[in-house]
Amino acid sequence: MPNIGPLELIVVLIIALVVFGPKRLPELGRSLGRGIREFKGSVTGENKDEDEDEPHELEQAKAEARAETAESVEGEVVGEKRG
Fold it and tell me: Would you give the DSSP letter of residue 4?
């Protein structure tokens, strides 16, 4: 069985880029990685459910974004009319 070298990997990546497009490729990579992690977890018998951690991390990121927005608006004068 022949080994897969860097040239073959580059050819496969170029074909994937042409077929799926640059916007869809990262999404496919994420879903493939998530699927591999789930498969590995089911084979090894791990009970850690990563889906439970994601909503908490998402809420934390939203809260941080809101805090940054509040800090940037805090020093600005809002509603001042000139005329």
Answer: P
Q: How far apart are CA 80 and CA 59, in angstroms?
A: 33
Q: Would you say residue 7 has pLDDT above 80?
A: yes
Question: Cβ contacts of residue 17 below 8 Å, gap of 6+?
Answer: 25
Can you point out the beta strands (E) in 28-73? none
What confidence tens digit (pLDDT) does each residue in 14-51 have? 999 999 998 898 899 899 999 999 999 999 887 655 55
Residue 29 DSSP code: H
The structure tokens listed for 77 are 């004068």
pTM: 0.43
Distance CA 6, CA 58 (A): 37
Q: Give the integer Cα–Cα distance in Å for 31 and 29.
A: 6
